[in-house]
Please model this.
Amino acid sequence: MSRDVTSHPKDANLSWEVAAKWALTVALVAAALFLLRDHEKHLFSALPYILLLACPLLHLFGHHHGHGHDKGKGDRSN
Model:
């Protein structure tokens, strides 16, 4: 049985999409590394404050998962 060696336009579009996503990822990582290198002192000097601000946000948004979602469902036996 012989296979058709001509590529379909759908396959070509998919390969271009994958290549574009990889190119965008590489460009964003390169930009992040350049920004980190140029603003390293500012970032590290603000790091303790960023961590302190993250604590209340994690407390507010982190405690709502997995607790009390099944209130009123079924019977609770002790």
